[in-house]
Amino acid sequence: MAGVVVVGLGVAAAIALTRADTGPSSPGRPFVGGDLHSLVVAPATSSRLYVGGHEGVGVSADGGRTWRQIESLDGADAMGWGFTDEGVLVGGHPGLFVSEDGGRTFQQQNDGLPATDIHALGSGEGVIYAASPQLGVFASTDGGASWEVRTDQVGQSFMGGILVDPGDPNHVVAPDMQAGAVESSDGGRSWRVLGGVQGAMWVSWDPSDTDRIVVSGMGQAALTRDGGRTWAQLAVPEGASVVEIDAKDPDTLYAGVLEGTEAVVWISRRVGSPVRDSRSSAGAVTSRALRALIAWVRALTAVCRAARSARSISTVPSAVLGMPVASPAWTARAAASASTGSLLPRRRLAARSGRLTSTTCWAWAARKRASPAP
Question: pLDDT grade, residue 20 (50/70/90)?
């Protein structure tokens, strides 16, 4: 991938999120399955949200308070979304799904696709972009009737929504699981790294200021206000895999968290400014990233060793990830009686406890316990 990672990390921007659901009942928690892949705000109506995972997709017409399942997207593994004048597009492992009735029902449409395992998708003025681990990045300029491969060198690790600049359809930003946010200025033919967080699963921006981008994934999120030159970490709810900016109200964020097989959506009404902005040279960033990686590996090794004999998984301080963390106040809406008006107890936060859980350690420890002692 072309480009040099030049990322300045600032102290975390503080945000306060409120839980959008009304409680543990099914209307407040859409079923998505064992993975949560996407959370998107419909660009025309900010109260309309879609949340998707490996097995199911839910839609809310009231900002996440109540939900209904979209049965025609069961098993669609909704990862990327696109919105055009003609309809709504969804990409996933089975391919492309299209709605022509405002997102109420969907039909699978794989005719003409150069690859059907679509991990990333987005649309803009006159163009649809898609990415697949089978091929790379490809695009359509005729509504999906035909497709052109833009590059087979990049895009295999893209996942989530692809952002298309409303003022320039050749300017796109995508989440890359290896590199963080990545950007193209020539219609997806070449790309440069913006960074933000590793394990990126989603990118979102303010369409009126495309230098303001949030990248998120694997319980982390970062914000840039200068097109990726500098970044500040956002403290998000524990386990949040997707953070979405409301295009109609860019000071509002939505965060998606998987609880069991259901999605819980949190809302922030205000995005705080970074406390400090840090600009660094490429060499300094590389050195700092290397030191952080070494510390992370050492800490994770200690966790795995402890898990060999422990009943519960240990935790790794988030500081070893090399990103500063803030501790904003978090609240959750009452789930029981509406007349009481009481709040649920404050949730444990990744931002406060700095915890990183690794199922890999459990598998490693299980093998070790099963092996005879040397």
Answer: low
Q: Do 233 and 374 fall into the same domain?
A: no
Give whole-number Cα distances, 242 to 53, 162, 238, 245, 256, in Å: 11, 13, 11, 10, 5
pLDDT of residue 235: 86
CATH number of the domain residue 90 falls in: 2.130.10.10
Shared domain check, 230 and 131: yes
DSSP letter string, 273-318: PPS------HHHHHHHHHHHHHHHHHHHHHHHHHHTT-SS-----G
Q: What is the pLDDT of residues 49-85, one digit of tens each?
A: 999 999 999 999 998 889 999 999 999 999 999 999 8
CA atoms of 93 and 72, how far apart (whole Å): 15
Q: Tokens 């230098």, residue?
A: 211
The DSSP result for 140-159, as a single string, is ESSTTSS-EEEESSS-TTB-
Contact 320, 292 (CB under 8 A): yes
Residue 62 inside a domain? The answer is yes
**End of a domain among 271, 303, 325?**
271
In a domain, 172, yes or no: yes
Phi, psi (5° rounding) for residue 352?
-90, -45
Is residue 77 in some structural domain? yes
Residue 157, domain member (yes or no):
yes
* 3 state SS of 366: helix
Could you tell me if 52 and 193 lie in one domain?
A: yes
10 Å CB burial of residue 189 (0-12, 13-18, 19+) is middle
Looking at the 3D structure of the chain, how many domains does it have? Answer: 2
**Distance in angstroms (rounded) separating the CA atoms of residues 144 and 222:** 33
- Domain that residue 367 falls in: 280-316+356-374
- For the stretch 142-153, pLDDT in tens is 999 999 999 999
State the Cα–Cα distance between residues 158 and 131, nearest whole angstrom. Answer: 6
For 24-45, give one letter per residue: b (16+ CB within 10 A) or e.
Answer: eeeebbbbbbeebbbbbbbeee
